[in-house]
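Example S7 (C-alpha cells).
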C-alpha cells in the first residue's frame, strides 16, 4: 500500500495513476473537498494527517506538497510514525536548493529519503509518462517508478542535483512561456489572429511543450520556481536575440557543452 501526501493538481493525478496501476493508495490531504472527491472517485481512504494512517501495511510514501517547509514537516512526522524500517519516501515537490542538498544529512529515523522532482505536468502524471530526476534511490526504485509513474528516470549522484536540474527546467519553461506570450501579443499588433499563430506553432519549429499547455500553465508556480532559482543560483540573464546579440556564437558554445 502507498501513501500519497497532497492531492493537488500533480499529487492527485499521481495518486489516481497509482490506482490505475493496481496499487492500493491512502491519500493524506488537509482539504476536505479533495478528500471527499478522492473517496468518491476511488473508494479508497483519505485522511487529514499522517497520524491517521495505519502504517502496518504501508510500503512506500509519495510526498507532493507545495512548499519546502511543508516537506520538512512531513518528514518530521514520518520520523515519529510507527512504520517499517527503511520506508522509501519519494519527495517529488520542488524544494529550496539548500534544503534539497541537505536531504542526505537529515536524521529521519527509519526513513530512506529519495529526492524525486518530476516534470511533465498533470497530463503526464495521469498517463504515467513523467520524467523523474532522482538521487538517494535504492535498487528497486527505478523499476517501481517506470512501472507506474514515469517513462524516463534520470539518476544523479548527489542530493540537490535533481532539484537544481528541475529548477533549470522550470525556468526554461518560464522563458518559453514569456517568449510565446510576447509573440502572441506582437502577432495581434500586426493584425494576425493569435490563435492562428498558436495553431502553426503546435506543429512547427517555433513551438515547444509550452505551446500546447500555454493556456493551462499555473503562472504562480512558474513565478515561485523562478524566485527559488534566483535565490539559489543568482540573477537570470536577459536574453537578447536582435542585432549585436551574437546569437550564432552563443549557440555554438552551448552545443560544445553537449559534446564535450
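Recovered sequence:
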Amino acid at each position: 500500500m502507498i501513501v500519497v501526501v497532497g492531492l493537488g493538481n500533480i499529487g492527485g493525478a499521481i495518486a489516481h495513476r497509482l490506482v490505475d496501476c493496481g496499487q492500493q493508495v491512502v491519500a493524506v490531504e488537509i482539504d476536505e473537498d479533495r478528500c471527499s472527491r478522492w473517496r468518491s472517485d476511488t473508494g479508497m481512504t483519505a485522511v487529514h494527517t499522517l497520524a491517521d494512517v495505519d502504517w502496518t501495511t504501508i510500503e512506500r510514501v509519495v510526498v507532493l506538497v507545495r512548499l519546502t517547509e511543508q516537506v520538512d514537516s512531513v518528514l518530521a512526522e514520518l520520523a515519529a510514525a510507527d512504520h517499517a524500517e527503511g520506508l522509501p519516501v519519494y519527495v517529488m515537490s520542488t524544494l529550496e536548493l539548500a534544503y534539497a542538498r541537505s536531504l542526505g544529512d537529515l536524521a529521519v529515523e527509519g526513513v530512506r529519503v529519495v529526492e524525486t522532482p518530476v516534470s511533465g505536468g498533470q497530463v503526464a502524471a495521469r498517463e504515467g509518462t513523467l520524467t523523474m530526476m532522482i538521487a538517494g534511490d535504492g535498487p528497486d526504485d527505478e523499476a517501481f517508478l517506470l512501472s507506474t509513474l514515469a517513462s524516463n528516470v534520470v539518476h544523479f549522484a548527489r542530493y540537490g542535483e535533481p532539484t537544481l536540474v528541475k529548477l533549470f527546467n522550470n525556468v526554461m519553461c518560464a522563458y518559453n512561456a514569456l517568449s510565446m506570450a510576447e509573440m502572441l501579443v506582437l502577432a495581434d499588433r500586426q493584425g494576425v489572429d493569435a490563435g492562428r499563430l498558436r495553431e502553426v506553432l503546435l506543429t512547427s519549429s517555433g513551438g515547444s511543450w509550452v505551446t500546447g499547455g500555454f493556456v493551462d500553465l499555473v503562472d504562480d508556480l512558474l513565478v515561485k520556481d523562478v524566485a527559488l532559482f534566483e535565490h539559489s543560483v543568482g540573477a537570470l540573464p536577459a536574453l537578447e536575440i536582435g542585432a549585436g546579440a551574437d546569437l550564432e556564437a552563443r549557440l555554438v558554445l552551448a552545443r560544445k557543452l553537449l559534446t564535450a
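Notes on this example. The longest strand covers residues 150-155.
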